[in-house]
Structure formats: structure tokens, C-alpha cells
């Protein structure tokens, strides 16, 4: 789960360069960002016995906030109360989204968790498309979610599924909150401030969950690596890629997250999946791509002048 703020404007500027020679390296950057993100999630799962999921959330948000504050050096003056309210809500959403995601990861395979989480932006894309045909992708996504049960939902922890669904809803709110803050604060300022708020919110829960493990240097160092792999590197790569790719193409590539998560879970965590579960992931990816294309088509039609 990386930052999406600012993608719209960059994507429009990049649209004319979609077929440019730089588009292939840009695609590689997006895929590399996804790989880093899921490797970071795999390391986080391995740290759960030491610090717990909420301790891991705290470490990720704290180190992400530190890095962003050092890079952005945000200005705190000249903003309205409404702007600061938006930052506070964005920070709350960040803490909630990451907390629910890691709580789900504690109970579900990485590929399944990310696939369910992707339903949040998927539903948002379907609603934004405002086309009857877009609901076809909702049916495809539903079929994919049903297939994730692998022929029996009893294989999946019910509480883990609820956490993943909560993370999906939080991701949808994250996209909306990110857009609001992106309009009020320049560059990375809003994100850095919101990440700081999220880290402060996560602090007491993380300390309670991790306990004395936070005094071990190697644990803290691994927590920092998760923050860098899951947030800093993917965001930097995506920011460069967005300068060369249309926003719709970027969104389609991001729809591959469930597949990269399933692969990372298999390689690093030994999480095997049934063919039916793999088919479910494929259906959700197809629905995400279809919804993005429908939303982009609807946006183009709305922008066209009426004859």
C-alpha cells in the first residue's frame, strides 16, 4: 500500500508519452515497487512473533514518518483549520489501514489478504465509472472472492477476512483523503504530516504489542527495513514512473499487487495456494483492470465537449 496522491495530474501529462521509449523502463519501475512492497510485507510477517502486528504497524509508520519528514521538511504555517482536520483524518486512515492490514496478515496468507484489500479501490473505481457496464466487473470480482475460499471458506480465518475487508474499506477512504490533502499541501508535505499523525496514533498500541522487543536493535533495524521496502522505495519508484506513464496504465499495473503478493508469500513464507485460490486472484486482477479502464473511459467521455 503506497501513496497515490498526485497521480492524476502527472498521468495526464504523461498520456502523450505513453508510447515513448521510456514507458518500458517505467513499467519495470512499477513492478519493482510492487516487489519491494510485498518483500517488506513478508519480512513484517516474519517479525510478528517478536513484535506482533500492531508493533509492526508502529515501526513501519514511525520510520516512514521520519524519512518523509527529512525529505519533505513540510511547512506548518499558512494552513487553515480545515486543512489540518484533513491531515488528521488522513493520518487516522493511514493508521487504521495499516493496522487492519497487518492484523489480517497475522491470520491469512499474504496473497489472499492483498486480494481482498484490493476490493476497496476496485469498488471505488466501479462507482466512479458511473456506467452500467462497470458493474460487470463487480460480478467478476465477487466470483474471484468466492473462489478465494478454495472450495471452502472454512479454510480462511473469519476474523482475518473481516480485518482484510476493513483494510479494503480503509484503502478506499485513503484514496479520497489523499486527494483532499494533496490539494491543500504542496509536494509531500501533507503526506509527511499525515504519516506523523498516523505514527503517533499507532505508538501506544505498538508499544503495548511489542513490549521489550523494541529494545532489541536488530528488531528495530528490521522494522526500519520494512518501512523502507514497503513505503519509501515503492513511492519513489512510482513517482518516477508516473512521470512517464498515463495514470490509467499505472493503475492497471498496480492491479497486479495480488499476484506479486501471492508470489512473495510462496517464496518467502512458504504459503502454498490451491488452483482455485489462484483463479480467484486472477479474477480480482481482471476485475480491477476492467474497472480502471471503465473509469478512465467515463472520465474521457465526461471531458469531451457536447456537440
For this entry, give a set of tags:
about 300 residues, mainly alpha, 12 helices, globular, disordered N terminus
Could you give the order of the helices and strands?
Answer: HHHHHHHHHHHH
Tell how many strands the DSSP assignment holds: 0
Helical content band: over 70%
Distance between the termini: 41 Å
Number of self-contained structural domains = 1
Largest sheet: none
Assess the beta-strand content as a share of residues. Answer: under 5%
Uncertain segments are 2-21
Spatial extent as radius of gyration: 19 Å
**What is the arithmetic mean of pLDDT?**
84
Structural class per helix/strand content? mainly alpha
Shape: globular
Question: Helical segment tally?
Answer: 12
Could you explain how this protein is built, in words?
This protein is mainly α. The protein has one domain (7-301). It has 12 helices and no strands. The chain has helices at residues 7-14, 23-72, 81-105, 110-117, 119-129, 134-148, 158-184, 189-210, 217-242, 247-254, 257-269, 275-303. Helix 4 runs antiparallel to helix 11 and helix 6 runs antiparallel to helix 12. The longest helix has 50 residues, at 23-72. It starts with 6 loop residues before the first helix and ends with a helix.
